Amino acid sequence: MSVQTGSNNAPESALGRYYNYAYLDEQTKRMIRRAILKALAIPGYQVPFGSREMPVPYGWGTGGIQLTAAIIGPDDVYKCIDQGADDTTNAVSIRQFFAKVADVETTEDTGAATIIQSRHRVPEKPLKAGQVMVLQVPQPEPLRYLEPRETETRAMHAYEEYGLQYVSLYESVSRFGRIASGANHPVMVEERYLMAPSPIPKFDNPKLGYSEAIYLLGAGREKRIYAVPPYTRVRSLDFEDHPFEVQTWEESCALCGAKDAYLDEVVLDDQGAKMFVCSDSHHCAERRAAGHAGPMAGHQLDQTEKEAAQ
Amino acid sequence: MAYVAVKGGEKAIANAHKWLAEERRGDPAVAELEVAQVREQLSLAVDRVMGEGSCYDRDLAALAVKQARGDVPEAVFLIRAYRTTLPRFGASAPLDTVGMAVRRRVSAAFKDIPGGQVLGPTFDYTHRLLDFALAADGVAPPPEAAVAEEPQAYPMPTIDSVFAHEGLLETDEPSADAPEPFDLTREPMSFPAGRDQRLQALARGDEGFLLSLAYSSQRGWGNTHPLCGEIRMGEVAVEFVPEELGFPIEIGEITVTECQMLGGSRASGDKPPQYMRGYGLVFGHSERKAMSMAIVDRALRDNAAASGQVAPVQDEEFVLYHSDNVEASGFVQHLKLPHYVDFQADLQTIRRLRREYFERQALKEAAE
């Protein structure tokens, strides 16, 4: 399914005259590709790179956009999601950007995309060889909230000095009786580098390990690129007596009935009524198209999403 | 009442853009602002946008101010996102500010210095009373400024020359084989930062942030005892040495404000005590920024962070990582973007902790 690009504030021709293909100049793309290759060669290591100013603000996905701009070509099929959904405003905006500057086919279909850019989620459908998952990263340094100084944290990675991280997890266990993490749960990559998986819920952490696809992670403001190559060991930190576990819900998706997907809570009124729906909008739509129905199938939200998909 | 799920679409974005354009234009009954008017009459806003946008182009900066509806950090952002796509030819030769065609030049260190005090176009001694005549239609042209009877000293000597014979002020010796300066627009921040990297970061840094840092150091948070040795503003030539020529050619002229802040005499090892300086240089006319920059540069020169307890202004990671307003503005405001997936993860945790809390309470009550 291809999405038509909407009206833009600059006409196509004017843009083409002033900006290079995929916005960045070719030297910059080469610099980013070199950083990507280094990142793939040292899984989980944060490669500093000469991050450029992009036409969207820092925090909106400038790292992810630079990664995409460096690897995209006219034959690619591009999917962009935010919070798992294709129709969130920022995802729509970034998708339009690449439709405009890279003249590329866009899709909502996870299986059909060659590049999937995302903020905060990894799609439910297992990724396959040939796909590149680009994750937007606000803070690439997993140790930053334990140690604010970059000079210190770089040394800690160099010496593989991750005791502080384990102490922090232990403190969580002693205070809450468990590792009370939700998103951005730290992982060890190939038992060498501690890595921030970007704020994906820990539900998505297991998808990073031994994947067929390439994971590229980009932090524009912090000027770091890192990667998880295919078939790489990725271990979410835990303790023997407090093993890592992912989120589960008692509810199932109200629209498609999925029991094993990450669910968003949608508040229905101010009396406490709520419904749970798949965060991955394409996963949900695909299931509904295949005949799956949840307890609230046919709800207004179901209709809205169908309209958006058309 | 029913809530509508917060999902945005292409249509919503397109309509938001249209509404924004309407707001930018304001009341159509009022004449549209021309870019040239912004360039000529809001020239200090233009200067700030060029400085923090790191791109010297008065017309583009004026356009950015207009497009950003007068929001300076937004205009800076527009310029940055434009300049980043420009090819980089190389670094110019160091500006020769001794050869500046000075419009303003004052020193607070001495009553008079070689070259004299030149007050120039300054707000400093104006009374800040609203001039209602400016609000009236058909304003009379401003009275012509008097022309000096004698031309100014040229080249205009710097504060260095005052101290030269006594060695009271450290001197910067330009080295012919110095490497090309660090370029923050091409390389990520790295620490410890060289002075070139620091000065570039400060020159691009947010004026408000640097002003507050400089102010904090004056109030005792990392005191640097600053004294304004000299501040000058005017036009300087920009020279570039093309590889194929091997000699400098003048490629243009820019307006800059330069500040030499003297502070903290220090005896170090085998060198006699002398004043150290902080340096500030910004595009256009901005003394507030140039002076703040010079104070912060001086504070960071002590390399105090390595010795433990320091004030914010002396901590280079703190200062350099947080001075860029395009980075700061983006990251603070990105909190507007949806975060419901991570919030859901957090909700799960807190609900579970609450459930356990109430279970514990119930057990405790049962036991009592």
Keywords:
heterodimer, A: 310 residues, alpha/beta, seven-stranded mixed β-sheet, three-stranded antiparallel β-sheet, 30% helix, disordered N terminus, B: 368 residues, alpha+beta, four-stranded antiparallel β-sheet, 12 helices, 4 strands, globular
Q: What secondary-structure arrangement, pairings included, does this model have?
A:
The complex is a heterodimer of chains A (310) and B (368).
Chain A: H1 12-18, H2 26-41, E1 47-48, H3 62-71, E2 77-82, H4 89-101, E3 105-106, E4 115-119, E5 132-136, H5 150-158, H6 163-176, E6 187-189, E7 193-195, H7 205-208, E8 214-219, E9 224-228, E10 234-236, E11 263-267, E12 274-278, H8 281-289, H9 300-309
Parallel strand pairs in A: 2-3, 2-4, 4-5, 5-8
Antiparallel strand pairs in A: 1-9, 6-7, 6-10, 8-9, 11-12
Helix pairs in contact in A: 2-3
Chain B: H1 10-25, H2 35-41, H3 43-53, H4 58-67, H5 72-83, E1 101-106, H6 159-163, H7 195-204, H8 207-218, E2 227-240, E3 249-268, E4 271-283, H9 287-300, H10 316-322, H11 325-333, H12 340-367
Antiparallel strand pairs in B: 1-2, 2-3, 3-4
Helix pairs in contact in B: 2-4, 3-4, 3-5, 4-5, 7-9, 8-9
What does this structure look like?
The complex is a heterodimer of chains A (310) and B (368). Chain A is of the alpha/beta class. Helix content of chain A is 30%, strand content 16%. Chain A has 9 helices and 12 strands. Chain A has helices at residues 12-18, 26-41, 62-71, 89-101, 150-158, 163-176, 205-208, 281-289, 300-309; strands at residues 47-48, 77-82, 105-106, 115-119, 132-136, 187-189, 193-195, 214-219, 224-228, 234-236, 263-267, 274-278. In chain A, strand 8 and strand 9 form a beta hairpin. The radius of gyration of chain A is 20 Å and the shape is globular. Chain B is 38% helix and 14% strand. Chain B is built from 12 helices and 4 strands. Chain B starts with 9 loop residues before the first helix and ends with a helix. Classes of the chains: A alpha/beta (310), B alpha+beta (368).
